[in-house]
Amino acid sequence: MPRLKDQLRADLTAAMKARDETRTRTLRMTLTSISNEEVSGAAAHDLTDDEIVRILTKEAKRRREAAAAFAEAGRADQAAAERAEEDVLAAYLPAQLDDAELAALVAAAIAETGASGPGGIGQVMKAVTPTVAGRAEGSRVAAMVRSQLASP
To answer: Which residues contact residue 105 at a Cβ distance below 8 angstroms, ignoring those fewer than 6 apart?
Structure first.
């Protein structure tokens, strides 16, 4: 299987040939974010697929928040454009966990850590975050942890 960055580059070329402006724009911005991350720090390095997925997740979240802000401001056309870009990015992300799967993972982490009450949120988050990385948004995970720790 080709590396994710190679796949993004190949898809960018295909989108350019197909004159798909939304896909081309989105993939260019994403590859720029990846390149910027690769050269940041003390020495340049290639990113792993997991690191690229983290960048894709961050970019998708940025698009989702922008779409909500534009929709709230009455700019439906711009909100639709942001949602279209988010859809392009979603194709490269792992499948998102549904509520039942997330609840089961959180329950397992609670049982593993033995946490109880609101004071155990940090313990559970530390245990469950690596398991759900890229497959559920952090705020959604935190809400599920809080609700399960609050219920007896």
So the answer is: 97, 128, 131, 132
